[in-house]
User: What shape does this take?
Amino acid sequence: MYKVFVNEKKLLLSKTPENLEKTVGYENSTTLEIALDLLQNTSTSEMNVYGENLETIWEEFNRLFRKIEAAGGIVNNPSGEILFIKRLGKWDLPKGKMEKGESREESAIREIEEETGLRNVILKDFINTTYHIYVERNGDKVLKYTHWFEMFFDGEDTSKPQIEEGITEVAWKNDSLITAEVFPNTFKNIKLILSDFKESKLK
Assistant: This one.
């Protein structure tokens, strides 16, 4: 199952029908283009395209876009708080585009250190990959893969926002602040990866 966000709307690609606002069986790549058009140009807020051969559907979907890979992390401290950044007025998790020759892990650590000012962040486990679509100024349609890792930090708090990247604040948040402050003012893929992270801790 793949969850892709299109302007904060959800496109779910799955093997079997899911109980969403609109559900359609996969026939060919035109099915995917119609689904994207509905999400981008109508009030439809969620859509499910399903078919037995999910990997074929995913390959066809990827062909519609230029792919960009990014990496980031959910950074915990000994108090169980999570590190957030505020970028362009919204709470977000530190992440950024992978550079040529970098591994996902190297990219995640570099981006976290650049965006938050922390040093010696410890990488722990891979959590999941989220997907979202956007259109660049030149009209290119991009499918962005963001690979997320669990991180740990237990050093001197040297955090400061990377102003040149549009980041205005770096803050540690506990569960109650995440619910009260972050969730009302963040992106759906951030809520999704936080949920995946919490679920992985319960296993």
Summary: The chain has a mean pLDDT of 93. The two ends are 20 Å apart (CA to CA). The longest helix spans residues 188-202.
